[in-house]
Amino acid sequence: MRVLSGIQPSGQLHIGNYFGSIKPNLEFTEKSDQSLFFVADLHALTTIQDASVLNKAREDIVLDYLACGFDPEKAIIFDQSQIPEHTELMWILSCITPMGLLERAVSYKDKVQKGIIPSVGLFAYPVLMAADILLYDATHVPVGKDQKQHVEMARDIAQKFNTIFGKDALTIPEPVIREEVAVVPGVDGQKMSKSYGNTIPLFGDEKKIKKIIMGIVTDSAGQNDPKDPEKSTIYIINKLFLDKKVAEKLADEYKSGISYGDAKKRLFEDYMDYMKPMRETREKLTTKDVEEVLASGRERAGEIAGGTMERVRKAVGLG
Ligand code: ADP
Ligand code: TRP
């Protein structure tokens, strides 16, 4: 079992990303024989066209993931752009990928609707993603529901390649769709998302985070009125940081009329307790650590990628 996951470096991570994606991915990769984790910086070029922004985001995401517990001894951590075989394989796969397959991509249509420039790169995004996966003979690719179609396209492309060039040329990957994790609400009660500006960051200044938490929108229930915990954004977020028993006790406090002010203070304390070890690790990590991790990842990933490309070149007649 070889697990591969990629994440686009696209700004400050929030607790929705942590509970919805980072934590379950971490748990899944811990069960695998080998895991690769990469920063999808070539994919990010479809939306970020500012060198300093992209460079900062590339470094930050590695710092964040290391702080969250990704172990660079076990997982191979690398930057996509540092392994030239990604784009080489992408070209070869492009030549057998039907236009019609890409035209069906839901995420392309969504992105264009949101105002992202419909470039050739954005359209061909799923072919690059197929190359990412197939280059490493990944057997399992854990993703959220929004990325399922892309992994299925990688399967289709691999099957087509094998039909044309030889049946065992590429490994057919399995998508592992993360179990339905509840959608984490943002400070305004909508889904927490960078695009809505309603996030509680995972890292960053403590005072700012306290201010954000104290600003969570509530209904007009009076100070000592009983409150329904399951309808309160504060409780729904607070629960994420607690064991079941402690969460149940807290729910009772809502029912017996905790004030929203106290509830927010409690949420801030529980956030801090939960995040403290990760935040401390994040503070201690340096640019040099990131460079070392990426240099070692590049070497290990490059070896696998080089082997696959040799096989692919031979199969297509470029050997
Ligand atoms: P954003 O919506 O902030 O742009 P992304 O789309 O980059 O976040 O999310 C990356 C992953 O994090 C998603 O695939 C999803 O699994 C998870 N995620 C993001 N927001 C939430 C949320 N509010 N609740 C649960 N999971 C989330
Ligand atoms: N498209 C993925 C996302 O936006 C990131 C990604 C790129 C990826 N290549 C991948 C994920 C390969 C898994 C495997 O979330």
What does this structure look like?
- It is built from 13 helices and five strands.
- By secondary structure, the protein is mainly alpha-helical.
- The protein folds into two domains: 2-183 and 288-316, Rossmann fold (3-Layer(aba) Sandwich); 204-282, Tyrosyl-Transfer RNA Synthetase, CATH 1.10.240.
- α3 crosses α12 and α10 (233-239) runs parallel beside α12 (260-284).
- β1 (2-7), α1 and β2 form a beta-alpha-beta unit.
- It has helices at residues 15-30, 41-44, 51-68, 85-94, 99-103, 106-113, 120-134, 148-165, 206-214, 233-239, 244-255, 260-284, 287-316, and strands spanning 2-7, 34-39, 75-79, 140-143, 174-177.
- The site of tryptophan has 14 residues, from β1, α7 and β4.
- Adenosine-5'-diphosphate binds at residues 10, 16-17, 20-21, 144, 146, 181, 183-184, 191-195.
* Sheet with most strands: strand arrangement: 1-2-3
Can you tell me the residue ranges where pLDDT is under 50 for at least 5 consecutive residues? none
Q: Superfamily at the CATH H level of the largest domain?
A: HUPs
Question: What is the string of helix and strand elements?
Answer: EHEHHEHHHHEHEHHHHH
- Main beta-sheet strand count, sense and barrel state: 3 strands, parallel
Structural class call reads mainly alpha
Number of strands: 5
Distance between the termini: 28 Å
DSSP helix fraction: 55-70%
**Percentage beta strand:** 5-15%
Shape type: elongated
**Count of separate DSSP helical elements:** 13
Report the C-alpha radius of gyration, rounded: 22 Å
CATH architecture call of the largest domain: 3-Layer(aba) Sandwich
- Overall average residue pLDDT: 95
* Overall domain count: 2
Can you tell me the CATH topology of the largest domain?
Rossmann fold
Kindly provide the name of the CATH class of the largest domain. Answer: Alpha Beta
